[in-house]
Amino acid sequence: MIDRRSLILASVAAVLPLGASAAWRPRQSAQKTFDYGPAKLDVYAPDGAKNLPVVFFVHGGAWEFGKRSQVGAKPAFLLANGFCFVSIDYRMLPQADVATQAGDVERAYAYVRANIAAHGGDPKRIVGMGHSAGCHLIALTGMRGGLPGVAGLLLDDTRAYDLAALGKNGGVVRAYARVFSDPSQWGALSPASYVDGRKHPPTFIAYSGASGRGEDSKAFAERLRATGTKVTLFDGSAYTHMSINRDFGEDGDALTAAALTFLKSTVG
Asked: Would you say the pTM of this structure is higher than 0.85?
């Protein structure tokens, strides 16, 4: 497990060259927007990019709100470190249920895989990333095989890995109770349901200090490890549920440093 406290002093050096600052990073190219069917997505790529690894990002928002433009420092940071970045919209509740949202993610991924080479990305080196509801959707689609050829998964803070277990522990409350109101659907919508004997893509799991995040993330990590999957577990208990996403890409951020190490080892 990676402990945030042990990384914080070294994170700047790990993320950027010595003495670098956000102001010194290369200016990112403006994103290009495309319609993949149900919704739109943005592609960020450096000028003259060719065969770069790609981070495919799914935003959070309790499955009910949020938008693809809410990416903070992620595009600038990742472009400066040799990646393309994609952020997608997907249909929100109540227009679309979670199963439909997962289908949207898979359609967006298929579009990116088929077209990213034209923007300088390598379709064989795509890492799926998501925060909160987006973390659940990336985990669900990645575990069930809906992201064919995905090189890795970067999961940032959810409790929705195993809904049946969460229900037994009294965790299906507030937004979860609204979104996952039908227990008969819990199995199909749980990433853990698809963790069987087969090996899954390398997976980075980060959790914040929000209630239950650590316990649920650790349980999911152990379930994955039992299949032989390479798992990196990041202790982000010093973060809130919002800051663990908001701070990604900022100078000195420990999660960013750990995630970049994972990305480089997976697709670098």
From this structure: yes
